[in-house]
Amino acid sequence: MDERPETELISIPATPRMSTPEILTPSGQRSPRAKEAKSSNAWTPTSLISPRFLSPIGTPMKRVLVNMKGYLEEVGHLTKLNPQDAWLPITESRNGNAHYAAFHNLNAGVGFQALLLPVAFAYLGWSWGILSLTIAYCWQLYTLWILIQLHEAVPGKRYNRYLELAQAAFGERLGVWLALFPTVYLSAGTATALILIGGETMKLFFQIVCGPTCTSNPLTTVEWYLVFTSLSIVLSQLPNLNSIAGLSLVGAVTAITYSTMVWLLSVTHSRPPSLSYQPLSLPSPSASAFSVLNALGIVAFAFRGHNLVLEIQATMPSTFKHPAHVPMWKGAKVAYFFIAMCLFPVAIGGFWAYGNLMPSGGMLTALYAFHSHDISRAVLALTFLLVVFNCLSSFQIYSMPVFDSFEAGYTSRTNRPCSIWVRSGFRVFYGFVNFFIGVALPFLSSLAGLLGGLTLPVTFAYPCFMWVLIKKPTKYSFNWYFNWTLGWLGIGFSLAFSIGGVWSMVNSGLKFKFFKPN
Questions:
Q1: Stated pTM of the model
Q2: Is residue 65 in a domain?
Q3: For 126, which DSSP code?
Q4: Which pLDDT score is estimated for 396?
Q5: How confident is residue 12, by pLDDT bands cut at 50, 70 and 90?
Q6: Which domain of life is it from (predicted)?
Q7: Does the pLDDT of residue 278 top 70, yes or no?
Q8: 223: number of CA atoms within 13 Å, CB side?
Q9: CA-to-CA distance for 26 and 46, rounded, in angstroms?
Q10: 3-state secondary structure of 6
Q11: Dist CA 391 CA 113 (whole Å)
Q12: How many domains does the chain have?
């Protein structure tokens, strides 16, 4: 019998060699991927660098893996976060999603400015009105996509605020000079205009509900401003941007509802006599040109909210596999579909119903002036009440960047988060500052053309410049020419629309129309 060595092992049948799935590493080389047994144990770039894995390994191997973790942070697998962001209202909570993005964008994108679009059509006419509105909508949708993509353009860095992105693109000082004024003007100016619109609408709502035979002593306009400001301050005590998602949903629903009600009520009732669709003519060609520029500024002002895009996206979690720009773009597409369904019918239906008889106050003023006796008081009251709810909701989201700036200054000096009393004090102070500005300048809500011209670069120009300076497309390529052209066109339109807005303000007598308490 054959003798075998004692050290010989029992032979085992060879198993077929299985190919290991591969993935591309950040450097472009191929690397084997661990087998995915369960979804909860799926391999991630840093799953092998946990403390549980590092504990039994000696110092040299541990140093290699720690260095690998640092490399993954540099290429963007892990985003380095500023610890101060956990104390600030915009970045305090990062559990947002596509639904929240849709609510916030819709609440910020539809508001009282939509009701002024028929006023612009009265000076532009059918063709130029529809053409300018369509071009502006497509243009701002493109710049919205740019901002969403630039939120994490640099690996490992999130630009959580519009000002941060401007500083990254234009430099620290120039970015502040270019972006600080228009963004603050958009936030604070819109908040003041909302106080004026909301207070005046509350007064009309009370008059409609109380009726002509009401014997109660009504509040003055300034007192209604104060009532609206007080309600806004109470709602502003919600701590962060994610916490007002419910308010943004209310604002979005009310905006869609009253926009639809306003144009439906206008087109279903008889049109006023002597109506004409010819653009309003003014005595001199220069006056007509300035009025057209002011009307285009009103169209530009209808597309606000880009100063909040990065802030909304900052409320979302972001990982290498699930970047924040994916749910943000989904929510933004839904929101801007509904924004189009509000703006275009209001502009076209309002101009069809009132033509060049459209009063300068917009659709609500026209509805109350021409159909207050044709429409039931309950329907009119409901329309005005929805406008009030929308103004209260919009006040919160437009004020959040200002609250964030206040608290950022406080936390950077004290190196600690704001207490509830400090946070409340900031918001009460901000609310009443806007109230006093509204009382001193009660015509601010009528300066839509000027506001649109001054803030137009935030929406139409700066994002194009930022894309070229940060993404650095090939010089003299179509992408390079396209964005530079759009950016400089936006700057030119901003200057022209601002001049038209100033001319309209002066010639309409607004400079003498200071508020007189009734």
A1: 0.80
A2: no
A3: H
A4: 94
A5: very low
A6: Eukaryota
A7: yes
A8: 8
A9: 13
A10: coil
A11: 11
A12: 1
Token readout for 19 is 């190919």
223-268 pLDDT, tens digit each: 999 999 999 999 999 999 999 999 999 999 999 999 999 999 999 9
Q: How far apart are CA 430 and CA 426, in angstroms?
A: 6
Higher confidence at residue 214 or residue 32? Answer: 214
Cα distances from 385 to residues 302, 365, 380, 393, in angstroms, run 21, 15, 9, 13
Percent over 90 (pLDDT), the chain: 49
Whether residue 128 is predicted with pLDDT greater than 90 in this model: the reply is: yes
pLDDT recorded at residue 388: 94
Is residue 506 within 8 Å of 299, Cβ to Cβ? no
Distance separating alpha carbons of residues 186 and 308, to the nearest angstrom: 10
**pLDDT at 271 (0 to 100):** 87
C-alpha span between 438 and 445 (Å, rounded): 9
pLDDT class for 360, splitting at 50, 70, 90? confident
Report DSSP state, residue 314: T
- Summarize pLDDT for 110-125 with one digit per residue, the tens: 888 889 899 999 999 9
Q: Which helix (H) or strand (E) holds 31?
A: strand 30-32
| In-domain check, residue 150 | yes
Query: Are the CB atoms for 288 and 377 separated by under 8 Å?
Result: no
Report which DSSP code applies to 458: I
Q: Name the DSSP class of 508.
A: T
Domain of 95: which CATH number? 1.10.4160.10
**Count of C-beta atoms within a 10 Å radius of residue 326:** 13
Q: Range of 234's domain?
A: 80-508
**513 CB-side CA count, 13 A:** 12
CA distance to 125, 347, 479, per residue, from 262 (Å): 20, 11, 41
For position 342, what pLDDT does the model report?
Answer: 94
CA dist 153 and 470 (Å) reads 7
SS3 category, 140? helix
The predicted pLDDT at position 189 comes to: 84
Which tokens in the block code for residue 38?
A: 């369960």
Closest C-alpha among 510, 130, 196 to residue 340: 130
Does residue 32 belong to any structural domain of this protein?
A: no
Residue 10 in any domain: the answer is: no
Better-scored residue on pLDDT, 384 or 42: 384
Query: Bridge-partner residues for 31, per DSSP?
Result: 23
Residue of 160, 191, 444, 138 whose CA lies nearest to 303: 138
- The amino acid occupying position 363 is M
For the beta carbon of residue 189, count every other beta carbon within 10 angstroms.
22
Contact 404, 90 (CB under 8 A): yes
Distance CA 84, CA 417 (A): 8
HSE-CB for 273 with a 13 A CA cutoff: 0
* Average of per-residue pLDDT values in the chain: 82
Give the containing element (helix H, strand E) for 24.
Answer: strand 22-24
